[in-house]
Structures are given as C-alpha cells and as structure tokens.
Amino acid sequence: xxxxxxxxxxxxxxxxxxxxxxxxxxxxxxxxxxxxxxxxxxxxxxxxxxxxxxxxxxxxxxxxxxxxxxxxxxxxxxxxxxxxxxxxxxxxxxxxxxxxxxxxxxxxxxxxxxxxxxxxxxxxxxxxxxxxxxxxxxxxxxxxxxxxxxxxxxxxxxxxxxxxxxxxxxxxxxxxxxxxxxxxxxxxxxxxxxxxxxxxxxxxxxxxxxxxxxxxxxxxxxxxxxxxxxxxxxxxxxxxxxxxxxxxxxxxxxxxxxxxxxxxxxxxxxxxxxxxxxxxxxxxxxxxxxxxxxxxxxxxxxxxxxxxxxxxxxxxxx
Length: 318
What we know:
6-stranded mixed beta sheet; globular
C-alpha cells in the first residue's frame, strides 16, 4: 500500500489565515535510533486530525519532538506553524507561536495551585525571556531586566479595572476568566485551588490538560492519548471538553490507540502510523475499520523483510 497522507481536509471548518502545522519528510531519532522515517502531515486551524497506530509506531515521538523535548532529536525534514520554522526554537518559543501539547502522563506539582500555574503560563506567553548569557548580563555582569516582547509575536493584552490595558492578566479579570472556563468545561471551581495534578484521578489529570488548552488558546493543540487509562465516563468528560473548544481558531492533532474516543470526538481526518511512517489516511470511517480489523492488514503492505525485523525504541509510549 502506498504511503499516503492527507494534506488538506475539505470537511473541516474554514481555517483562519495561515498554513497551520505543516510537517514534511520529518526524521526523528531517540538515543541514536531512528523512530520517525520521513513523515509528512498537515493540520490546519479548524481541523481535527486523529493519529492512530500500535505501540512503538512513533506517535508520541512525533508530538514530543514537535514540542521540543530534548530527548528527541530531529535529524531531517521540516516543521512549521503558520510559516514559522519551529524545529530550532526552544519549547517555550514554540508555545508562543501557538503550539500546545497535552501530555499522556501529566506531572504532579505539589504546592503550586492550578490557578497560579496557568496564570504564570499566560504571563510567560506574553513576555519572552532573555536566553543567552549575552542577553542576560550587561557589560558589568549584572542581570538585565527581561527582554521586550518580539514584534512578530502577537502579545495579548488584558483589560484591567477602569479599562486600562495591562501586559499581564489582572488578577480579578484572570480569576473571572478562569472560573468561566471551568464552568464551560463543567469542571468544579475547586480545581482552581487544588495543587497541579496532586492526588488527581486519571480523568482529572486529562481534564486539567484540556483546561490549560482552553486558557492558553493555542493555534494547534497536540493531545497525546487523552483517553489513556480512563474509564468510559472519564473518556466522555474529556471528549466533551475538547468538543467545547472546537472552532476555526483551533487545530487539533489527537493521538490515540483506540477508536472509542473518536465515538465522541469526530475527526475530519484519520491517519495511521506504523514504524515511523504514515501508511494510510482517510475519513472517520478508517478508525472504525481499524477497530474491526486491527493494524496487521496495514503492516505487511509497506514493510520489507528488513523492516519487519526492526525493534523500536520505546521512549515512554512511542
């Protein structure tokens, strides 16, 4: 079977200006072993793409490499977000141009409340930090103030009391926005005061990832197995949150093993990845076909004898 990708979706909402996330011939290695072997994929704002495949196929490798995880090395190809090359940017700069990753295994941060965590993230998106020693220190070796926002980055403003625009979220307005978002996602307001993922159930952790996505308003959100380890009720709750955020401003790349979450989040395009390549793309019906047949019918159609003997490096759940 030919290695097929769908570059554009005609069934999605009309995207806003920009090409969205465009990946061409991407090669990624982990610990010296190549995992992604020339992957091409495009996700525009307004579209939902599901990325499916068995364990070890490279799905998590893809999203982690795109977000700038240093354990994953891009060795070839390109990845741009609305024309900006993201492959050489540090992770926070990738977030500033509109990329978001919802983790498969979110970390707990005891002592840091959800409200403070998200507010800090919002402020960091507005004010880029100086990075090199030359940027950080003046001629006398003293630490400089933070560098101003780059002119090519859209710096959101927040209207404070009396209609005065501020460069960071005024606490009152921020709290109002956070509580409104919690209500929209049907999450209890107590989430705001809890410590990040500390004592959270699996479903609560994944819903917190959706809350962050809602507050940070990325252009492209990559969700790494948001249904992993969840019971059916939790899957429904997470899916409902994702669906409430769908719209022309947001493109979603949803990574999953199983078709069940796609019963609730209807994708515009489904891609199948096996051994570091996308081997098939199609509409939502492709996910149902995979549920019935599994992945074996796609494996041998494109792999030669040498490839069938390969052993993938499992870095997390790749």
